[in-house]
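Review form for a predicted model. The reviewer records the input and the model, then writes brief findings.
Reviewer: anonymous (R2)
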Amino acid sequence: VLATFLSKKNAIPLVTTCHGFFRPRWHRRMFPCWGDTVIAISSQVKQHLMTDFGVAEKDICLIHSGVDIERLKAASPEEKAALKKEIGIGQNHYVVGSAGRFSTVKGLEYLIKAIPHVIQEEQSVRFLLVGYGKDESRLRTIARQLPLGNTLMFYRPKRDIECYLDVMDIFIAPSLQEGLGLSILEAQAKQIPVIASNVGGIPDIIDHRVTGLLVNPKDPSALAAAIVRLLREAQTREYIRQNAFHRVSQEFSLGQMVDKTEQLYQALLAKGYNDL
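Model under review:
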């Protein structure tokens, strides 16, 4: 609100970024304050702005969030083995996991509820949840109520959280809503196949059965079936891994995001405030 006032008072273009989804409450409709241009990080967020807030399409610029491909290089087999030892996971186990904030919107309870279905089919798998957050206690309670044995581990990160992606053979993003899904892009940059919910901006990243697998949210059985499939089908894992890495390198790099953002700024400066 303050930025909108200062923009109009000083005739300086205002650019905002919409990273997710907002409830269309009356004050947001009456005082939208999206600026002269609003960056939407996915096509679904762009549609949300137009449908729920009446933002004109011409005032929205679609720029996907990007990740640093060079920094997110895949770990070597030796590095992966050392990380497994640090965490306390056997070297012969497949690791299926997720990393990030523990909150209800991330849908991690449905991954936990999928575990009994998976271990009925595949015993050589361990599940790893890396992170922390206000939902951790509830998630641990759900886990204790299920017959998981020693197959699930909660782990608080001791370094940058994306480092722990390297230990995972399959990354799971069971979110209930996502503006785009940076953790998915980070996993793909590290060449880890991903299974994710078909919600929000995630379909902008994942082409089902090509760059990942999509499942309906809140469906532990479907999630378990997808996990078992990737565990059993090495060729499918490799196909998805290669396709996803190629796409994230070509379309979701940090450099591309910066270039497109700079182009937007330059276009607004060239146009001038009075012409907006």
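Findings: The mean pLDDT is 95.
Further findings: The chain is about 45% helix and 15% strand.
Recommendation: see findings above.
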